[in-house]
C-alpha cells in the first residue's frame, strides 16, 4: 500500500468478511455434538447430579442433568465433540460402580445452554 493511501471502509468490511469465510471454511471451529444419556442403577440419592455438574466444570460443555421419576438419571450435554466424549467418560469413570445401564441418544445441537446445570 502506498504511503498516505487508505482503503475505503467498505473494502475493510469486505476483507473482514472474506477472512471470516476463509477461517470458517478451514474448520477451525471444532465440530459440536449433543447427546442425551439415560443412566440406570444406583444413580439417585448418591450425589450423581451434583458430581456430574462438578465434572462439567472441567470441560467446555453445556446442558443439564436431572432425576427421573422411574429412578433413572437423564443427562443432556452439548459441546465440542472431543469435550463431550471426555466429559461422558469422566462421568462413567466416577460412577462406574453405580451405573448398571446407560442408554445414549444422539441429539441436534441447540446451542441454547450457557452452562451445565442440575435440574430439579
Which SSEs are present, and which pair or pack?
Elements: H1 9-26, E1 32-41, H2 48-56, E2 62-67, E3 73-80, H3 81-94, E4 99-107, E5 116-119
Parallel strand pairs: 2-5
Antiparallel strand pairs: 1-3, 1-4, 2-3
Helix pairs in contact: 2-3
Care to give the gist of this entry?
With 120 residues, this protein is α+β, with helices and mostly antiparallel strands. 34% of the residues lie in helices and 31% in strands.
Could you describe the 3D structure shown?
The chain is α+β, with helices and mostly antiparallel strands. It has a single domain (32-119), classed as 2-Layer Sandwich (Alpha-Beta Plaits), CATH 3.30.70.100. It is 34% helix and 31% strand. It contains three helices and five strands, in the order H-E-H-E-E-H-E-E. Strands 4-1-3-2-5 form a five-stranded mixed β-sheet. Helix 2 (48-56) packs antiparallel against helix 3. It is elongated, with a radius of gyration of 21 Å. The protein starts with 8 loop residues before the first helix and ends with a strand. The mean pLDDT is 88.
